[in-house]
């Protein structure tokens, strides 16, 4: 699987939008972009995924660059409960292995 | 939460002793995984299973073995525990009705090898 690059840490003020970037310059045409997050002392949980088009769900939005070499996870209004490590992962459509990097640690400031 | 439980949740053991961690799922999912998580390394795949008696290695499989004799149970064994295997271990399953599948994780087992 292709690798991803994320900033080690980011901060956001509570109730403000957060944009978490991910670079994946070696992405292949069949790779889906997945985002997971890990709250303190818990296992990771699924957030969102996409292939080419921007995606929205109840947790977040995913904006994918036109050339697919980067993507951004958008939390529209950060809350204290969103403080977590966010992982950007690429997976082939049929792939059964996930390669987690070290992710971005998000701190939400009250 | 996909009905995943892990046991034990915490364990302290001595170097050289065998240790077995259990992952149990209640929904008959085909794929199950074992990861370890260490500071500075994120989550790394140890082994995974794609069915009863069908397993394969991940990126950090040395020193670990797995077994899956029933769909619902996936066991991770450290034959002779070492201090470098001190870690938090997560079990996961994949689920979904269409690709790409999502992973759901268990609560984790914190293992300390002294």
Number of strands of chain B: 11
Strands of the biggest beta sheet of chain A: in what spatial order? 1-9-8-3-4
Work out the largest interface and the residue count of each chain.
A-B, 23 and 26 residues
% residues in beta strands of chain A: over 45%
- State the helicity of chain B in percent bands: under 10%
Based on CA atoms alone, the radius of gyration of chain B comes out at 13 Å
Order of helices and strands of chain B: EEEEEEEEEEE
Q: How many DSSP helices of chain A?
A: 0
Radius of gyration of chain A, CA atoms, in whole angstroms: 13 Å
Which oligomeric state applies? Answer: heterodimer
Measured as a percent range, the helix fraction of chain A is under 10%
Low-confidence stretches of chain A: none
Q: Give the overall average pLDDT of chain A.
A: 91
The DSSP helix count of chain B reads 0
Secondary structure layout:
The complex is a heterodimer of chains A (110) and B (114).
Chain A: E1 9-13, E2 18-23, E3 31-38, E4 45-50, E5 55-56, E6 61-64, E7 70-75, E8 84-92, E9 104-109
Parallel strand pairs in A: 1-9
Antiparallel strand pairs in A: 2-7, 3-4, 3-8, 5-6, 6-7, 8-9
Chain B: E1 4-7, E2 10-13, E3 19-25, E4 32-38, E5 42-51, E6 54-57, E7 64-70, E8 73-78, E9 87-95, E10 102-105, E11 109-113
Parallel strand pairs in B: 2-11
Antiparallel strand pairs in B: 1-3, 3-8, 4-5, 4-9, 5-6, 7-8, 9-10, 9-11
Kindly describe this structure.
The complex is a heterodimer of chains A (110) and B (114). By secondary structure, chain A is mostly beta strands. Chain A contains no helices and 9 strands. In chain A, strand 3 (31-38) and strand 4 form a beta hairpin. With 114 residues, chain B is mainly β. In chain B, a hairpin with a 6-residue loop joins strand 9 and strand 10 (102-105). Classes of the chains: A mainly beta (110), B mainly beta (114). Chain A binds chain B through residues 32, 34, 36, 41-46, 49, 87, 91, 93-103, and chain B through 31, 33, 35, 40-45, 48, 50, 58-59, 90, 92, 94, 99-108.
